[in-house]
Protein 1
Amino acid sequence: MEIDFRNIAAGGAVACALLPLHERAAAAAPDPLPARLFPWAAEHPGLRDFRGKEDERLLLYAPAGASPAERIALLGLGKRDRNSLKNLRNAVAGALKFCRERAFASVGLPTAALNALAEAGLGADTATLVRETALSALLGLYRGDLCRGKGNEDEERPADPLSFSFLFSGVDVPAALREAARFGAGEAKGVVLTRDLANTPGNRMSPALLADEARKVAETYGFSCTVFDDEQIVSMGMGALYAVGRGSRNGPRFAVIEHCPAGREKDRPLIAAGKGITFDSGGISLKPSASMHEMKSDMAGAAAVLGLFTAIGEAPDRDALPRVVGLIAAAENMPGGGATRPGDVITALNGNTVEIQNTDAEGRLALCDALAYAQKSYTPALLIDLATLTGACVIALGDYGSGLFTEDDSLRAAILTAAEQAGDLVWPMPLWDDYDKNLKSEIADMSNIGPREGGAVHAALFLRRFIEKGTRWAHLDIAGPGWVSKASPLLPAPGATGAGVRLLCRLLRHPGLCEHTP
Ligand code: BES
Ligand code: ZN
Ligand code: ZN
């Protein structure tokens, strides 16, 4: 579906125009906006019945010959409060599905309606609303069924609308709005890639194929990219990542992708490292069968890094962005004759030895080498890792919350702000020194597991052992929100969500986080 701007004064028309409106009291007169934009609607009795409640939707047909829309769909946003932006995203995403089911080829939304929302104090300016609308329109159409055989696609399956247009009348919209639509579409493209990668079954998404995806993103957008194969992983000294991948015929890979705008070569980069376990069977410490298939998405962190690079590549301001490096620690965690045994001791890239007491705690092993690599090869301005790391984090924060672990107060504040803007649920979690001793091993520098209680904290403390003094580091445990079992307007279920992509897009633009060295 194309996103564009249409001048209705110059004859631009759509099959269905969306009008998002806040809730009004029953006694109050209908919202004046529909009648102002579509004079015929003033006389329409339906307008009086529409209250604007959350999830309310009313389709009104224009009289024959009326323009610029054959129909208008009033979308209820509920009460004006801090959920309004979320409600706008959901209303738009749900409306696009509604339009698709009815085979409306062109959908529009008047920018005047977004101006009215911005003026009514939605807590965001019109450009932000344009961005969020474009994003929601595209994500609302996302389908997670990637694997139908040729000829077996559902014949009833309606096609997407061809276009989504921001409607304006007469004077051209400010350039900032056109740019905002491109931002939204680019972020949606990143989220879609992340969902597609994380939804892909393990037999179709090996570490080598995930590394190929990194190469593809790099080629498409002109980023640099290096991939290390299993032999290079061993010779570099990444014993932890290798230990995770060695049980599989599909050997591990380590990919480095970099966006470096001209003149920023000397800048300290923002580094995003992703856990890329293409399938987590648990290894010799085999997982129980129930829900094991969901572990095809145990590379959601790595997929989010590639989604971020897609969004950067698509962004109109890409050359003004900081230098960004993405690291992908990819491995398949499988049992087998060559697999790591519980009790094995390995040496990580930074020289520390780890006793692997449980092969199912593999994400921290893959990531610890990525974190060591980040600090060995660069001086990061910020180092952020994203990982579907622990079931314990899901127990702590539920299906939708990400755990945020950092000791840097300003970085924590910046990430929480970015999460709020992105509509992600993120909550700070502790890195208590007292718990660190629980990672003690009798024979090596540390064990890869602590007690079950506080499992998410112990996993984060394990990672902290690989952080050097002075590195600004944050860890996001996305085990819960990486995958959903319940559908919502923005997300088909069961399936991968693309969690983390938009948060990183916002964080990248947080003022003052990454400084430029001229
Ligand atoms: N990939 C899992 C964590 C996970 C669980 C992600 C549920 C998404 C949903 C991770 O590798 C794992 O198995 N962690 C273990 C650690 C334990 C063995 C210390 C866990 O959480 O049980
Ligand atoms: Zn595991
Ligand atoms: Zn895992």
Note: The longest strand covers residues 270-280.
Protein 2
Amino acid sequence: MFPTGDAIRAQAPAMLAEHQPDIEQRPQQAPPRPLVDPFGRAISYLRISVTDRCDFRCVYCMSEDMTFLPKSEVLSLEEIDRLASAFIRRGTRKIRLTGGEPLVRRGIIDLVNSLGRHLKSGALEELTLTSNGSQMARHADQLFAAGVRRVNISLDTLEADRFARITRWGRLPQVLDGIAAAKAAGLKVKLNTVALAHENAHEIEALMQFAAQGGHDLTLIETMPLGEINEDRVDQYLPLSRVRAGLEQRYTLTDLPHRTGGPARYVRVEELGLQLGFITPLTHNFCESCNRVRLTATGQLFMCLGQDDQADLRAVVRQAGSDAAALDAALDEAIARKPKGHDFVIDRRGARPAVARHMSLTGG
Ligand code: SAM
Ligand code: SF4
């Protein structure tokens, strides 16, 4: 079992030695062989869904009656650590923990503390988290102490009733407290807003002002056709090209060169001093610069968010233990299958999602 609380902080170096025998000795060894896919893209960014569970049931993400995975199918925290460390050995520089809601996973702070050792050694540049904010108030200080410096927090509306309707189970004040706590702890906050035609299209400017006043960044996300959710996605879909065109009537938007290798494009809203991102998987092709892969809570590695092909790293980690060579070979085999790109379609005729798994499985 993963040690907890103070124990892990005391034991972090020992855990490093156990799971990751070569990281700290790297300077004396040959430089790591980077993971490069068949199209020449280096994989430097790993997203890990640490749980498929969540304390919300957002309408675009989950159905109300979700069946969650049995515990035996979910990677243990040690297994996550071992796989993450294998990626870091092969050049992963950034890790994002997500879910489901990462902060509802028991022992999550222990995992963050453990992965934090790679920040200290310099092998990892950034360890970050995407959260719904509901549990942020009680975790923010510990996240900062472990080396986390930035978090993404989802916020689709500033209206309490609407918030309760969109998230089904969430309460707005709790999330606003979480955002404030993150800031107070020293974490840079980026707010994520899913653009929903009939829910928050009229609130985008209010959210921009809220973000600017709090000193946060804001990123707008188009809905993606992932998983059955008992809602009509065509109804919810709001193209961000339309949102952007509307904003350009009222604000000066200056394109920023900043790229993350993902589907986000950034502008500065001059009047507000706000960095605003647009994530447009449906209207913009971003695959040629893709630098990322996604590990599910059950250890499936998805080489592309929009394709079904996956590699079963749970089987490998459960068999290989801490055999670095076996993990290495499995990563090579998986990345060799990374596809060139994806083809999301929201289409009235085929009312089925383009990809059957839920966002909470692959973690967005
Ligand atoms: N529970 C955390 C949260 O809500 O931030 C982390 C996981 S959540 C799956 C990650 C992000 O994906 C959130 O910003 C959420 O709004 C977004 N998301 C979920 N389902 C989506 C969908 N079908 N289309 C677009 N974004 C989605
Ligand atoms: Fe939970 Fe995040 Fe999905 Fe909402 S978007 S149901 S908070 S995992």
Note: The domain at 34-362 is CATH 3.20.20.70 (TIM Barrel).
